[in-house]
Predict the structure.
Amino acid sequence: MQKRRGHLSSSLPMTEADVVKMSGGMNIILGGPGRTALPGKKRRKARNAVLRGRRDYRRVWGLLLVGTLGTILLYLLSTSSRHNEDSDVAATGGGIKGMIQWHRQRRRHNQKQAIIKKPLDHFSTLQYALQHSHLVALYFAASWCPHSTPVTEALDEYFSDLILPPKSDDEDEAGAKVTEPFPLAIVHVSSDTKEAKFREYMRKNWIAVPFDSPEKTSLKRHFQVCAKPEVELLGIDRKYEIPTLLIIDSATQTVLTTNGVDDLEEFKDKALEHWTELHSLVRGMEEKYAEREEEEQEQEDDDGLAREPARDRHRRAKQGDGNAAGVVGELFGPN
């Protein structure tokens, strides 16, 4: 009979006293005889509290596990990177000199690998001329401008057989038939208002920015060159009027001179030689500047190398081994 009563009491419904709240928000449900039964709503509430506690418990441990694994992964990656750098330094001879040499090599490598955006890269109509000639003469003119006529005739007379010919319509790729760079390319940027006049004004082997191309206006804005009637229409802050002949270094895409028209008048058929000499002079100055900059950087590195042993001795003296004799020995050597 006693055994039967125990069985029945264990199956009694839960009461309010059966629910004990523990720390961390988890609930333990206890059963006992002689208790008032919990209503169904409270029973569900207690069960949901238990489930929420379990979910929170698993979520916390999951976050801890993910954080631990991430920390281990970052440590392994940083250790591998330091190991590779140490190997590179050891390959250069090790020590302070090896470290400085390694940094020099890294700096030179980064300079070579750096992609420098050139000022004319976004002008697609100029790329053929820039890629296949040493110099580009960017010619701003118009058929109706009387000052453009003598410049046009001089360009046609002096350079028509020396300049880069325009790309043929049947070529699939730009410069497919160009094997070696030409000394000069002439690119015409017109201020004519009628396409027929624009085409009539073109000369042999000139490369033209298409009459209806938006880059025609973009080039005028970029170099601030246009005819007087275009100033208000295009909203250009004009620096140069037409005719203007800009000589551009194809490799660096920088303007060597804005006085191409004056050079034609002064040097005539020797103008190309003058521009080539100017190009060589500017290149030489750029190379000398780069070399001097590198020498100054190396001198700074060498100065740092000369100061390094003193810092090392000072650091070792400060660290020491807790023995005054050891510190004196580090500073002054053996007696």
